[in-house]
Known about the structure:
This protein is of the alpha/beta class. It has helices at about 20-30, 85-90, 100-115, 125-130, 135-145, 155-165, 185, 195-200, 215-230, 245-255, 275-280, 295-300, 330-345, 350-360, 365-380; strands spanning about 5-10, 35, 55, 60-65, 75-80, 95-100, 115-120, 150-155, 175, 205-210, 235-240, 260-265, 280-285, 305-310, 325. The protein has a seven-stranded parallel beta sheet with strand order 3-2-1-6-7-8-9, with helices on both faces. A six-stranded parallel beta sheet has the order 12-11-10-13-14-15, with helices on both faces. The radius of gyration is 21 Å and the shape is globular.
Amino acid sequence: MDNLRIAWLVPSVELGAYWQPVLAEFIKKFKNTIFYTGQVWPEFEPQTPGANIIQVVGKMRPIQIKKTTTGYNRSFMYLSPGIVGDLLRFKPDIVFAQAFSLWTLLALLLKPWVKWRFIIIYDGSSPNSDFQDSKIRSFLRRMIARFSDAFVANSHGAKAYLMQALGAKEDSIFTRTYLVPDAKTLGQHLERTELAELQLQRPIFLYVGRITSRKGIKSLLEACSILQTEGYRDYSLLIIGTGDQRQELEAFVQDNQLEDIVTWVGWVDYGHLGSYFQQTDVFIFPTFEDLWGMVVLEAMVFGKPILCSKWAGAAEMVVEGENGYIFDPYSPPDLAVLMCRFLDHPDLITPMGQRSQQLIAQTTPQTAAESFTEVVSSVMANGQSG
């Protein structure tokens, strides 16, 4: 088994530095592994363990079909057909293909001739990624699912989509959380940041991510405006990230006299994020649509209570009332009520944060790699039990 040749087809890891530690663990068992992608993250260092098996094939280029205001833009990913030559040269025994891209289709079409086992990994379910309103895409996905040997669903939402929309058999689906944070990487630079110099009012609420309409930050700011009308000003909101909506949101902050509450940090390198997680109090993820939401798990690593949108796959990591709360970002008043709980009862922050750490301790790069190893063993033995 250790000599199996395993190929991964993941079109983009632009924001996927978290794949590196998982792969570093995986190749301890399966050394003959190549991870093919069309796009890597900005700080990618090819000699780092886990990254040293990553090969870039061509370039991934999204072709936008339809733009949305509060969700993922509808798009088609252009990927290099050169992947066919790479796979035929490598001759893998098993192919892990992410979702239903062109690479997934090409690799599956080759399956009858090369006889590799074919496993689809699916990160999460959301309206604009599932394409259930597209008859053509849904048909193609059902056909792909029909001839796949197994599936790895990162969330229960992903499993439900594979079963209900694509007809995948439940005993062929392994529900395993594989999109996981790496505490070691996040904790590389835990020296105090300029945050200490800002002298922010506690508690400090934190948002980390892109500054775009899909992420629901305006709803978060509207919740802050509601709190202000109710007399709550003794707290801070720290926003980390960049994006095309920042100018609009800065104007909203100014128009609603929230300058003393909201602080914009801008871009922070992944290895330095841990310091900000460590020095803030409550993490908020107000997204309108996210397959997963890695930042939620990263905040849990640092023992933070979570306020998470119901439209994020990572809401599955929140145990209501234990390590946080789930809310609808389309209702800023509801979010304001939840923020009030921490403002009125700051003694909730520490125990809820400790519960977050307890929960996330069960989900690590090591457990993710072990899950994939389990799937490989099961598929090779033709005993797929999810």
